[in-house]
Amino acid sequence: EVQLVESGGGLVQPGGSLRLSCAASGFTFNNYAMSWVRQAPGKGLEWVSGIGGSGGNTNYADSVKGRFTISRDNSKNTLYLQMNSLRAEDTAVYYCAKRTYTSGGSYFDYWGQGTLVTVSS
Amino acid sequence: QSVLTQPPSVSGAPGQRVTISCTGSSSNIGAGYDVHWYQQLPGTAPKLLIYGNNNRPSGVPDRFSGSKSGTSASLAISGLQAEDEADYYCQSYDSSLSGWVFGGGTKLTVL
């Protein structure tokens, strides 16, 4: 059974930093790309960042480019999101999601339960 | 404002059929990228409902179906049930943004 368990969320002041983790199990982690998707309170889903199975091919939404860094440790089956220079608008539930490729593009077939990040003074 | 446009809400009575539209552009759906759909029950994480425009993952009832044409896609739910009350999101890839994009979400109310 595929399981994705996020951790590391919490309350942080504007301008601060936080590192999220996502522990994966139930599939061959290094064979799959992964992504972070966030959802602000009462709002829709927003893709944040993605990374290839080997750790290369990272990409970011314009809203977080230059502030967030995605990485993975395939020896620990863990995905990370380092978030720096946090802003109030980064307040959201952050989900990690397993990404599966098709010939027509990728979809997110498994999601974690999410971890809440609140940026406030 | 989301790259993919969905109606904010739809509603229907039990047993009825409803459809949710998802409109994109020439850099995403119109460029040939697949559309995928997710169901988010209140207080839970999103769940994959339809992938590759019209394919259902194992365990998803055949009451749910998807289609795609041109720059738009649709999710149809037939035989509406109370447990279908949730938020529904479409998703695709956008070549101009070089990233994955979601619709703004549609809240389905079962009357």
Tell me the layout of helices and strands.
The complex is a heterodimer of chains A (121) and B (111).
Chain A: E1 3-7, E2 10-12, E3 18-25, E4 33-39, E5 45-51, E6 59-60, E7 68-73, E8 78-83, E9 92-100, E10 107-111, E11 115-119
Parallel strand pairs in A: 2-11
Antiparallel strand pairs in A: 1-3, 3-8, 4-5, 4-9, 5-6, 7-8, 9-10, 9-11
Chain B: E1 9-12, E2 18-23, E3 36-40, E4 47-50, E5 64-69, E6 72-77, E7 86-94, E8 99-102, E9 106-110
Helix/strand order of chain A, N-terminal first: EEEEEEEEEEE
DSSP helical segment count of chain A: 0
- Secondary-structure element series of chain B: EEEEEEEEE
What's the shape of chain B? globular
First and last CA, distance of chain B: 28 Å
* Oligomeric form: heterodimer
The two chains with the largest interface, and their residue counts, are: A-B, 25 and 27 residues
Total DSSP E strands of chain A = 11
Helix content of chain A: under 10%
> C-alpha Rg of chain B, in Å?
13 Å
Low confidence ranges of chain A = none
Work out the number of β strands of chain B: 9
Strand content of chain B: 35-45%
The best one-word shape of chain A is globular
Rounded to an integer, what's the Rg of chain A over CA atoms?
Answer: 14 Å
